[in-house]
Write a structure and sequence with these properties.
heterodimer; A: alpha/beta; Nucleotidyltransferase, domain 5; five-stranded mixed beta sheet; globular; B: alpha/beta; Rossmann fold; four-stranded parallel beta sheet; 16 helices
């Protein structure tokens, strides 16, 4: 039985096609989230790579911020539940905490010993501590967001970004650039700023190991390490981290068959 | 495209609690406007000020918090906040205060006009922002302000010293009002008013307590409307009578197996914080459409003052939710959750109310642990619509529901 999970986020769309809720057949990611052709492009990519069509798939579940307006699915479920299923798929029942930093929000999901979400907490209505913050900063520095981590690794003295507001931090970064702060130190400071903000959120639900990260920002190794150091834990990373939502949606679809 | 046909509102039975309570709440505004026309004194009063004082002295009352909630619910919160902000008030201060200060400047707002005051009766047991808000009103309108200082109580119980301190101020406020308006305190009338206030409170608390039944005989959002009477008119005979009708109806609902919650009640939650008035419909729909009934909220129970002596009355005013320490506040909520079989807690992180929202992260954590229930919070505001995102609200409510489902 094939099931498809679609995760329509604020900046990207992800899909995961699974067989019998256990085997990942294909994944796809396209830039462009809700309100763009990103979701359709990701789905088309899945069909192109698997030689399957919509009629071969038994159930489609959509998640993410764009879930409410997507009409091609059989149902929708929150990304919180999907990330929990996705995290459990990768790490099993030992997983206790998932830190998901997405494009427009940050979530901390607490898991119980049965692999289910037991509680969660999300950021307040502010872009600080989310992928959007990193995106804005990367734009100012004219860098690819995917290169932030490598650049930060070269830092010898991370700059201090004191503002917790994305807009204020933007002008702070510009003035630090003007003052001759080295780019790696500035990028490291930017990553640490996000880690500090998210770290405070995680502490509110009392972090328990095993801890992993999901979402696009999980790929930022420097940020992961800094956040882990702040929390005193090791944060696990899996290349599928950005697909947890889509994988979880496909598993959810299978469970609801 | 076919024109949308608007459903005619269902006629309300004039003998129903809904009708009676709606009339009392509406009449309170009309009566104050009428009193003003007749040259009688009108007071603007903070919501947890002892209603027994103006009611006994026959002073017509307007509750600016209630007015601001009405204005916000009718969609004019942002317009009024804009006026206050243009006057120099920061958008970080309470939106009720901004709406009220804007009204003091404009002296009109079709969404909820009120009589202008001759005196301000302020009590800081609800928050300390209230003092500056009322001081500014007093300055702008050039009228006296009388304050009952009921400080935050760091102890679990209310001490006799605390009661004596507030009790003395109670009588001082009475004497000041007697002097300002040349009116006389009447002990018999006071006794009558306290009787009505206690009757209203007893019936109100018993009515909200009917939520212990599963399913609940009412939709918790009803309480947010009905509580207006507890805020503004609990010392009146008709309020006591209407609250007793409400209790009777809820009891009958349970006996008949019906509820004002029109969906199947799949989940039961406690709602924490002041209602998000500008988005009352959206916040209500987000719950109702998922079969989530908000069966209880401390916000509603906060306006039930039951006592049998003067000291007990004062102690009750010293024990309102925002004036008590974290442990007592937590225990009250844990009791509500347990009594009403609550399965989840939804917290309104209300940008207007720094006090309430400030202590909620820790308190909600403790409540969640004590009751073994999941907790979700969302950003919003009691009157400023700019602080709410429907998509954010929806995701969090859905997440909460999915945990409650998985816990079943």
């Amino acid at each position: 039985m094939y099931t498809l999970g679609i995760d329509i986020g604020s900046t990207t769309s992800k899909c995961a096609l699974m067989k019998d809720g256990k085997e990942i057949v294909a994944t796809s990611l396209r830039v462009g989230g809700m309100g763009t052709d990103g979701p359709e492009a990701a789905i088309t990519d899945i069909w192109a790579r698997t030689y399957l069509t919509r009629s071969d798939v038994d159930k489609v579940i959509v998640t993410g911020y764009g879930r409410k307006n997507y009409e091609g699915a059989d149902g929708e479920v929150s990304e919180l539940t999907c990330h929990a299923f996705g995290g459990n798929y990768v790490y099993g029942n030992e997983l206790r905490t998932i830190i998901d930093i997405g494009g427009q929000d940050a979530k901390v999901i607490c898991m119980n010993d049965q692999g289910r979400m037991s509680n969660f907490i999300m950021n307040d209505k502010c872009a600080a501590g989310t992928g959007r913050f990193l995106e804005v900063m990367a734009n100012i520095l004219k860098m690819d967001i995917n290169n932030l981590s490598d650049c930060a690794m070269q830092s010898t003295s991370p700059a201090s970004i004191s503002s917790t507001c994305t807009v204020f931090a933007e002008s702070e970064v510009i003035s630090q650039l003007a003052n001759g702060v080295k780019r790696p130190d500035l990028v490291a400071g930017i990553c640490e700023s996000v880690a500090t903000r998210v770290g405070a959120l995680v502490r509110r639900v009392q972090v328990k190991e095993k801890v992993c990260m999901s979402g696009g920002v999980a790929a930022n190794e420097y940020l992961r390490k800094v956040l882990g150091d702040k929390l005193g834990v090791t944060i696990e990373y899996d290349p599928l981290a950005q697909y947890f939502g889509a994988i979880g949606a496909a598993i959810y679809a299978y469970n609801k068959k | 495209m076919a024109e949308e046909v608007k459903k005619a509102p269902r006629p309300v039975d004039p003998n129903s609690a809904k009708y009676k309570l709606g009339k009392i709440a509406g009449d309170a505004y009309v009566n104050a406007i009428e009193a003003k026309k007749q040259g009688k004194p009108v007071a603007w009063v903070s919501s947890n000020f002892p209603v027994e004082i103006p009611e006994t002295l026959g002073i017509a009352t307007v509750y600016p918090e209630n007015q601001a909630a009405g204005i916000a619910a009718r969609g004019a919160g942002e317009r009024m906040c804009d006026v206050a902000e243009a006057e120099g008030y920061s958008n970080d201060i309470c939106a009720y205060a901004r709406v009220s200060l804007a009204y003091a400047k404009l002296k009109e707002c079709p969404e909820q006009d009120v009589a202008m005051p001759d005196v301000l009766l302020c009590c800081n047991n609800i928050c300390n922002c209230m003092i500056k808000w009322y001081e500014n009103l007093a300055q702008e309108l050039n009228i006296p302000m009388i304050i009952l200082d009921i400080p935050f109580n760091p102890d679990y119980e209310v001490s006799q010293a605390f009661i004596d301190y507030v009790g003395a101020q109670f009588w001082d406020a009475v004497h000041q009002l007697e002097e300002i308006f040349n009116i006389k305190w009447d002990d018999k009338k006071f006794e009558e008013v306290t009787g009505f206030s206690c009757r209203s409170s007893k019936a109100w608390l018993a009515a909200t307590g009917e939520a212990h039944w599963t399913p609940s005989p009412f939709n918790g959002f009803d309480l947010l409307n009905h509580m207006a009477v507890m805020v503004t008119a609990r010392g009146k005979a008709e309020a006591a009578e209407a609250m007793e009708t409400l209790l009777k109806e809820y009891k009958e609902n349970h006996e008949k197996g019906v509820s004002t919650f029109r969906e199947e009640e799949k989940y039961r939650i406690m709602f924490e914080g002041i209602a998000c008035w500008p988005y009352l419909r959206a916040t209500s729909k987000g719950l109702k459409s998922r079969g989530i009934n908000m069966v209880t909220t401390i916000y509603a129970d906060a306006f039930g003052f039951d006592y049998s002596s003067f000291d007990e009355m004062i102690a009750a005013y010293c024990s309102v939710p925002n004036a008590i320490n974290l442990e007592k506040a937590r225990d009250k909520r844990v009791k509500l959750c347990k009594d009403d079989n609550v399965e989840g807690l939804l917290v309104h992180t209300n940008r207007s109310c720094k006090l309430w929202s400030g202590f909620m992260p820790e308190m909600s954590r403790q409540i969640g642990e004590a009751c073994g229930i999941p907790v979700a919070s969302f950003d919003g505001d009691q009157a400023d619509p700019r602080n709410f995102s429907e998509a954010q609200y929806d995701t969090r409510v859905q997440g909460l529901m999915e945990i409650m489902e998985s816990n079943k």
